[in-house]
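[Q] Does anyone have a clean structure-token version of this?
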Amino acid sequence: MPLPVPNLDDRRFDDLVAEARARLATHLPELTQIAPGDPVHSFIDLFAWLTETILYRANLIPERQRRVFLNLLQIPLRPARAARGVVCVDASPTSVLLPPLLPDGTQLRAGKQSVTMVGELQPTCLTLQLLVKRKLTSAELNALGLSLQDLADQFGLRKGETPTPFQPHRMIPGEETLQFSGTLDNAIYLACLVPRQLEKQIALVRNHLAGTILNVAIAPADQLEGETVNELKPRQLSWELAATGEAGEAIYLPLDLLADSSKGGRQVGVARLRLPRNPALFHSFAQADPMFSGVGQQPPELADQVEGARVAFWLRLRCPDQPDLKLGYLSLNGVDVLAQGLKQDLIVGLGTGLPDQVIALPDGQIEADSLLLDVEENGSWVRWRRVEFLAGQAPDANVYALDPQSGYLYFGDGVSAGRRPPQGMRIRILAYLHGGGYDGNLPAGAIKEIVDGSPRHKLRHEWPLNGGLDAESVEQAERRIPQFLTHRNRAVTQADFKRITENNPVNPVARAEVKVGFLPGANINAARDGVPGVVSLFVLPPGEPALGETPKPSQGLLKDVFGYLLNRVLIGTELYVLSPEFVPLAVSVKLQVRDTETERQTLQDVQYALVDYLWPLAPGGARGSGWPLGIPVSANELATQVARVDGVLAVNRLALFQKGDNGWRRLAESETLSLKPYQLPELVGVRVESGSGTPGLPGGIGALEGTATVTSLEVPVPIIPDVC
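[A] Here you go.
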């Protein structure tokens, strides 16, 4: 709690009048009988008012001193922030010709709110269908009454090829989260369709699309604050065109990414892709029998009975840095928009030749980065550069300063703060964006009109504009600016590192473990411990307990957390954000159940109990917060957990298997799975059976050491449900 600051004088008008009358009564007793309307009372009131005014201003001196001090820090008020988003503009569905290009700065309208396009857009007649290959588990495959051998026979796979089943699933933007996780290949397939009216002219459509720039609108599932996004490095998205190889197989060609304002799906934006100039690379991959759609590397089957002949081409979207990326929106023909107005080609004044010239722009709340200023010199225009501070600039530097909130332009003194605009020379504003604020947060469908648009353009506004904030008030600034001197969001102690990492708004972290002094080397054998000034964090993403689905941090997660923490550690801290090393482990159990009628359910419960106990997140481990780093795994400890499962009468044998270079090795009964301080167990296989004897290695994970193995090639095959 701050210390209370008393007023220099807390007397008000009535107090001053009463005090003056009391003094008159003491010093001039002859005035005590004066009537209320006497002029003496008017003099008393006048001097009381003057005194109160002086006291009021005197009491403001501490506040004025505080604001002067804050101004000396040169941290200005934050201007209004414009809401941003994307809209889509489609071409006419009846013409194979591309409509006119929409230039940068095109104005849109949402009622009284002005909206400005950022970047140019070439509308096309294409529509989009998003599809994924949803991975099927063994339980789901069994529920359909199918086996892997059935699929191998059905699709005619050769010896050594193993079917990997999936179901084609259509994703609808805006109605569900577009998830890469849970898919067979961590990819989303974009079917770019021509309108039904142009199906027979698809070859002409492809010819006109060849070599054009395709704009793809992107929005993340969880929007980050703009300042947080700017702290992070852009994420790399992989955009590929589906083509055919020499043998007719599906291959994927990388597309040129000209620009990505979404920073890899971190914020709402647009990815601009250059399509190949050769239309022969565009393929529909239409199959005569839908059963074979998606086999191998081919795109999956289209949904809603859409004919494959309408596909102009297929795109595949992946994120190698973060395979579990989630998006909220994807659409074609997108363009960035800002809820701001645009002013262009303004003559705002003439140079006076005097030092410290100030010019007021017609608008306030200026987007500083959008302002372009020219000064006339010798019959031509010369671009001047905006700087934060004029002090220290060279006398001949063509610079100016801008107060974005008030719209004031400040020029130099010609001595030590930049050049003066020459006398009589015109000062021109080429363009600037202005406005912004909370009112610009428009819901989907609010933007309805292109100002002076063509009838061949069809506007779609399917994703809301957000991020708009009103300009900062003086009171808000006074609460914020002191953080410049003392900021509490710093990582100092181990608890600070853990708390800040697990609560970061950039990329979710379910568990963070801090190892002070642990220095990773070029390889794991070069790691050192006890190094002063080094802090290493081991992080894990969220995940639900499931066999073979151990949550492992992606490269993107490690980069995001490192970038977020790097701005919050103390000077001299050597920071590392790492993934634990996962040691593959398999468990096999022979047991006796209490009731044979519920035997299958009991065996399933035992598997769930083992998965939960060895899970690196809650409810794993003995304390329920995840299996601890470096704690060995004991067969006796796991047998105790199995014995606690309802329905288990006795645990006959429990065996642990450790993955080696030449296969799986069975651990001795008294042997534990030893783990180093940076290691965690990864349960990849569980085998639970009734009976006695030696437990065998779980199936589907490989073979024991010394056993001959057969290498198989996984072939994705679709499971098309029967529809009556």
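[Q] Thanks! Anything notable?
[A] The longest strand covers residues 581-593.
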